[in-house]
Amino acid sequence: MYSNVSLQASKLVELANGVKKNSYRTKLITITSGKGGVGKSTITSNLAFLLSKKGYKVAVLDADIGLANLQVLFDVKPRNSFFDYIEGKSRLEDTITKTSYENIYLFAGISSFEYSSFKNSFVFSNFIKDILALDSFDFLLVDTGAGLNDYVKEFLAISDNIVAITSTDPSALTDVYALIKMLSLNKSKLMLCFNHTKSYQIGETISNSLITLGKKNSLKADFMVKYLGNISSCTNVATTSRLRKIFANEFANDEVTLQMELVLRSLLLNIG
Ligand SMILES: Nc1ncnc2c1ncn2[C@@H]1O[C@H](COP(=O)(O)OP(=O)(O)O)[C@@H](O)[C@H]1O
Ligand SMILES: [Mg+2]
């Protein structure tokens, strides 16, 4: 059992190193959270939109296996999901869905899936490598599921630019600390974005408390937690999602769009 686990781990490290060594043009950014429903998909779609407005070509991968909903947020009807590629039923290029937003492309997921069939086979990390090897995009944003199941771990293992979305809820903070603890074992940093948080300072103060807690519990000293910024709760964010529209496009001059832009600016400064 142990040797099996360590073999899996060393294979993942190998795959991750492969991604680093090849220094692809496409920057891989993985958006995750401990707790579900904190705003990962909302923030992913809005960041993709803001990146595209800067002239970048952006691919978004719906990696919330079993709960995929980015096709709803981008209001597209994909012909194929990326599982068609993984299962050998279609070419990678044929699983890319063009959205109505210039320069945004979706690798759609599926919303019900018996995923035990792919357990420990590294199909997801190999799939990410295949997208990077296309050399077609400036950014690949991966929207993972919540929590720390094996699939989320696989998407995290292959990425050096990980953004955790959290709220100030005690349960979300407990979960994000569990993520910090896990990532501190073999990553160099985690970026934090606070959603449903009305002031920049509140998010910053809580980030600092998480860093202090990490020090107290002797997490690896060179592991960095980088605070990116805050996004307020805003009913128009939920309303635009329900209408299958992107908030930052519909409300380009809103204060919450400005907060998203600041998060993006900070993210771009922090990615390798
Ligand atoms: N800043 C916000 N203000 C108001 N509603 C939000 C905000 N962020 C997300 N939501 C809403 O919260 C719900 C969950 O968001 P979602 O992005 O689907 O979370 P996750 O992907 O983490 O499960 C959605 O209904 C979404 O519209
Ligand atoms: Mg989601």
From TrEMBL:
Record's keyword terms, sorted: ATP-binding, Nucleotide-binding
Q: Which InterPro entries match?
A: P-loop_NTPase, ParA/MinD_ATPase, YlxH/NBP35
Q: What protein name is recorded for this chain?
A: MinD/ParA family protein
What organism does the UniProt record list as the source? Answer: Aliarcobacter cibarius
